[in-house]
Amino acid sequence: MESNYNLETRFQERIDREEKIEARDWMPDKYRKTLIRQISQHAHSEIVGMLPEGNWITRAPTLRRKAALLAKVQDEAGHGLYLYSAAETLGATREQMIEDLHTGKAKYSSIFNYPTLAWADMGAIGWLVDGAAIMNQVMLTRTSYGPYARAMVRICKEESFHQRQGYEILLTLCRGSEAQKAMAQDAVNRFWWPSLMMFGPSDKESTNSAQSMKWKIKRKSNDELRQQFIDATVPQAEILGVTLPDPELKWDEESQHYNFGEIDWDEFWRVVKGHGPCNEDRLKARISAHEKGAWVREAAVAYAAKQKEIADQKAISA
Ligand code: BYC
Question: Distance from the CA of 228 to the CA of which of 87, 251, 259, 293 falls in 20 to 30 A?
Answer without folding.
Answer: 87
